[in-house]
Write a structure and sequence with these properties.
heterodimer, A: 2 domains, 5-stranded antiparallel sheet, 11% strand, B: mainly alpha, 2 strands, elongated
């Protein structure tokens, strides 16, 4: 769809960017030491750090990705919210305090606090860089998605803009400025999402959502048509249309029949889907990639504005043509549960040299929207296979174990003065993040029923929903969403910068650097990582950011968490066991992702090929594999090194005493 | 809003007790979270069961978030108590010396 930028959006966005620069400038003058740069001097108050945690964690994936996924797939998007929040329990109960006690700047400090092993430094730094890259991609993709409606700039411009601003934030004052940018962003995000939810509930539901009277809902046409198994050719009564072509696509659930029609009054060609049960053709939405490289939206260019926003209820509690008026928390869900929601499915059709993405209506009972199963196939009666179920469990496992292993989250434990502060800031984070995630369900379902979804880019559902309430709310929500990206990317860049300057250059390569030299190395790394992130953000345009973040969690859970947990709780852990575990977790998870069907479909665009790996989330294989590797290698190396006294005990009590 | 620079803290003898507490709380939440996954995989239709005006999926999902916060606050309360208890003990020991 075509996005028209608003001057207000630009003004609010610029105000936010200026605020960010002022914060960076203020802290740049106070940040001279490496401790100041990488860990904000360990002097951040736990309450500020807790909200900064939320700012760090509530990334583009949380705000744009989850709301977008809920807007097209209902409760399945909310599963991400549940998993992301649940992961904080691992962080609080198991990781928070020991991490603070045992580390200084990076999580490699904690892993290496007992062993003093260069190998651990190296693999932990590599792991940090790879996980950060996996996490950076969706943030940058989100930035590119946002800049189109906000400033009217193309995707690549948004990516470059975020990259440039983040480089300035991080390269000036490191963790101190990053913390306060995240604090600001976390606060604004939760407050304005709450406001958005209040206005959604005040507006209520309608079978013809018209965005508060500003945009009439497009009534998708139907034409009486007939076809049978004996005579599959479609026959239509309406003489103003002529059938040009017909396709039948076989699916597990039955055949789909599409027809290309010529409207003789306008001369436009369009694609329609046959509803065999009701006996009519339904208008669809199409995005066509022509053989000449042109993209057409419903047969026209983007400027012709023939492509519509979608998402509505065809029946509310059994009735058509209804407006409910304001709804409460419970009636919000009960109304959806008793209604029929029109979701949109996609089918790709080849038409000569053209590839047509056809989006067609799929009326779905609200009761199905409010439970899992529309994206993650878990119901055997609806064709879910054992692989589908394993994939679902794997994703939930990755979300649960990934949070406490994300490098940009772990480094935030070093910005507070004591382990007790680390614990308290985690609790503040859980409260803020949990509250926000509850709101995502309202925002996502609000978009799904509010006629605002851009079916080609569901990441934009939350900002477009805000736009339906006026340009001011849209401008603020978009600016906050942009800030969301800035905050998270800054955290990731600081984590990467610490991994390179502190773990690789200082501890692994033993390059002699003054304290200032270390800060300088960190800043140069920030610039390089920022530039790489920009390139990746442009290359991965168009993917749902939640899927991508799911992968980052899987890699973090596989590479980092087994090492962290075993060092804390298994006294026979050895340095070689830790190194092997991180490497195996990293390599296995990344390999499984690269060979998965989803990567074949959405990254390589080879959906016609059968990928070697059928599960899309690797955690269920790579996490146990990483644990097992650590266990076996530790046992072997303990036995073989016993004679020359190289055994390293990871005994928790000892480790903590040493760290103390 | 700063806390002042990070400082060295006395050896905290409450650590082993806090770790045990954390592990128990982690395990109890893991069971709750695991239960959610198991229901989804084994009997997904159960998630659609009506619970008042809502359904089990909404109730269970929101509960996982709310219980997380309750457990977190409980853990903090108990940890604070343990820290105070062992700090008082340490102070007493110092005084006696």
């Amino acid at each position: 769809m075509k996005y028209v930028p608003s001057p207000w959006a630009i003004v609010i966005f610029l105000a936010f960017v200026i605020a960010v620069f002022v914060i960076s400038y203020y802290f740049a003058k106070r940040t001279r030491s490496s401790e100041g740069y990488f860990a904000a001097g360990g002097s951040i108050h736990w309450s500020v750090n807790g909200i900064a945690f939320a700012g760090d964690y509530l990334s583009a994936a949380s705000f744009l990705g989850i709301c977008g996924l809920i807007a097209v797939a209902g409760y399945d998007g909310f599963l991400y919210s549940i998993g992301y929040l649940a992961g904080w329990m691992v962080a609080l109960f198991v990781v928070a305090e020991p991490m603070k006690r045992m580390g200084k700047f990076t999580f490699a400090d904690a892993l290496d606090s007992k062993f003093n092993s260069r190998g651990i430094r190296l693999v932990a730094a590599i792991s940090t860089l790879i996980v950060s890259m996996f996490y950076l991609i969706p943030q940058m993709v989100g930035a590119g998605s946002l800049v189109m409606p906000l400033l009217g700039l193309p995707h690549w411009a948004g990516v470059l803009m975020v990259g440039a601003i983040v480089i300035i934030i991080v390269a000036t004052a490191g963790m101190a400025s990053t913390t306060y940018v995240q604090f600001l962003k976390g606060t604004l995000l939760v407050v304005f999402t709450l406001i958005l939810v209040i206005v959604i509930m005040t507006r209520g539901f309608s079978t013809s959502p018209d965005q508060g009277g500003t945009v009439p809902y497009h009534d998708f046409k139907i034409i009486e048509a007939s076809s049978s198994e004996e005579a599959p050719e479609i026959i239509i009564q309406d003489g103003s249309y002529k059938i040009l072509e017909q396709w039948t696509v076989s699916q597990k659930t039955g055949d789909l029949v599409f027809a290309k029609l010529l409207d003789s009054s306008t001369g436009f060609e369009s694609i329609w889907k046959l509803n065999t049960e009701e006996g009519y053709l339904e208008e669809t939405l199409t995005v066509t990639q022509t053989g000449e490289g042109q993209t057409l939206y419903n047969g026209g260019t983007m400027d012709e504005e023939r492509f519509y926003q979608v998402g509505h209820m065809s029946r509310i509690e059994g009735e058509t043509d209804v407006e409910t008026g304001p709804v409460g928390i419970f009636s919000f869900f009960s109304t959806i549960k008793e209604s029929t929601l029109v979701r949109w499915e996609k089918q790709v059709i080849s038409d000569g040299e053209d590839t047509i993405n056809v989006y067609y209506q799929n009326p779905t009972p609200g009761s199905e929207v409010l439970r899992p199963g529309l994206v993650f196939k878990v119901d055997s009666d609806k064709g879910a296979t054992a692989t589908d179920k394993i994939d679902f469990v794997s994703l939930m496992l990755a979300l649960f174990f990934g949070t406490a292993a994300l490098p940009h989250i772990l480094i935030r434990y070093y910005t507070v003065p004591t382990p007790a502060c680390a614990r308290k800031s985690t609790i503040v984070a859980i409260a803020v993040i949990g509250f926000f995630y509850i709101l995502t369900l309202f925002v996502g379902l609000g978009a799904m029923t509010g006629g605002v979804v851009d079916i080609t880019n569901n990441n934009m559902s939350a900002p477009l929903l805000a736009k339906s309430f006026g340009i001011a709310l849209f401008a603020i929500i978009s600016a906050i969403a942009f800030a969301t990206v800035l905050g998270t990317v800054s955290g990731l860049v600081v984590a990467s910068s610490g991994a390179v300057a502190h773990d690789l250059m200082d501890k692994f390569l033993k390059i002699r650097m003054s304290d200032r030299g270390k800060v300088f190395a960190g800043k140069i790394t920030a610039v390089v990582v920022g530039c790489i992130a920009m390139v990746l953000g442009i290359l991965f345009k168009g993917m749902n950011v939640s899927y991508l973040v799911g992968w980052a969690f899987a890699v973090a859970a596989s590479a980092n968490l087994p090492a962290i947990l075993m060092i804390l709780f298994w006294k026979k852990t050895t340095a070689k066991g830790v190194v092997s575990s991180i490497l195996v977790g990293l390599i296995s998870s990344v390999t499984l992702i690269l060979l998965s069907q989803k990567t074949f479909n959405e990254v390589y665009h080879l959906s016609h090929l059968h990928a070697p790996v059928q599960i899309n989330n690797p955690a269920i294989i790579s996490v146990p594999l990483s644990f097992l590797t650590l266990f076996i290698v530790s046992l072997i190396t303990r036995r073989s090194k016993a004679s020359n006294g190289e055994i390293n005990s990871g005994e928790l009590k000892e480790a903590e005493e040493t760290a103390d | 809003m700063g806390h002042g620079p990070a400082t060295k803290w006395d050896k905290d003898k409450s650590i082993p007790y806090k770790i045990r507490l954390g592990l128990w709380m982690f395990l109890s939440y893991l069971i709750l979270y695991g239960g959610f996954i198991v229901i989804n995989v084994v009997d997904p239709k159960l998630m659609g069961t009506d619970v008042g005006s809502l359904n089990l999926a909404i109730i269970y999902g929101f509960s996982l978030i709310i219980i997380a916060l309750i457990l977190a606050l409980t853990y903090n309360h108990q940890s604070n108590k343990l820290e105070r208890k062992y700090k008082d003990k340490q102070d007493d020991e110092k005084e006696h010396k």
